[in-house]
Amino acid sequence: MAASMTVGDFSRATRLSARTLRFSHQAESLEPTSIDPSNGYRLYDTAQIVDAQVVRGLRSLTVPVQTIRKILLAPVEV
């Protein structure tokens, strides 16, 4: 099981701003693994760092958010 990270820790680990993470969550391209119902804090798993790096790289290439979502949801063929 992967370790949970707060949005701040995840932001530092992935070099994505908290604002970008919130936007990615709203766009359903990089959703937190859980949200605390009492305070709304978002938690991410360390396993999501790879997806966050994909998001960061594709956004730097100005790939639209909808396309990033499709890429992240696409099945991986081995």
From TrEMBL:
The keyword DNA-binding applies. SMART domains: HTH_MERR (SM00422). Keywords: DNA-binding. InterPro entries: DNA-bd_dom_put_sf (IPR009061), MerR-type_HTH_dom (IPR000551), MerR_fam (IPR047057). Residues 4-74 form the HTH merR-type domain. It comes from the Bacteria. SUPFAM superfamilies: Putative DNA-binding domain (SSF46955). PANTHER family: MERR FAMILY REGULATORY PROTEIN, REDOX-CYCLING DRUG-SENSING TRANSCRIPTIONAL ACTIVATOR SOXR. This is MerR family transcriptional regulator. It comes from Streptacidiphilus alkalitolerans. The lineage of its organism: Bacteria, Bacillati, Actinomycetota, Actinomycetes, Kitasatosporales.
